[in-house]
Known about the structure:
By secondary structure, this protein is of the alpha+beta class. It contains five helices and 14 strands. Residues 1-16 have low confidence and may be disordered.
Amino acid sequence: MKILICALTVSVIFCSNIKEKDIAEFLDAKYSGDTSMVNSFLSKEFLNFHAPFAGLGIKSHYVDGFLLVTEIINDSIMDYINIGDKIHEVNGKVVPEVGIQINGAVGDLQKLVVTKNRDSLFSEINIPLQLLQKKETINSYLNTIKEYSDLWYEYDLQILDFMYKKEKVFVYYNWEGSLKEKGKVYYFTAIEILTIDKKSRLIIKAETLWNELQFKNQFK
């Protein structure tokens, strides 16, 4: 089930103060993967800031018993690890197919057993956890919401609280969804802060605060 909203044109939405039903329409388009509708709400200069988290600063995917590093988010760790390197163990445990779950505070060292790109020599490295916040431009943001939407069979979204102050809109909501028909229901709560351009009345920045650990723990 998805939230029901009244159909409004974008010109009507942004000619006056943002209302809760306008934000509901934006969020519904976001989680349903309607990139065309979402794009109509966004400024060309739009930036999306993910919730800050403590992590290694890399992206990887599982391949035949190891994690292949595909992206470096935090440039400061490039002295330790780079794209194409393979991670075999993390903190003494062989990496599982579902990926690794990093626990600890910012600055805590994580022990990784790796092989460098095009090298078979195993080495142990220690990488401190960093406070990270991913930033996306409009094209990356639209791709991300489409990929996320494609994962879910159905979802439900409920706005719990809403307020705006000057050019900022604060919306607190609950999301829940299932991966298949009559499947297990996963959920999270989030606070999304949207910054509205005064002239165009389009969204120029989005910031999300949500309980990522609460969400990931449901998949254990």
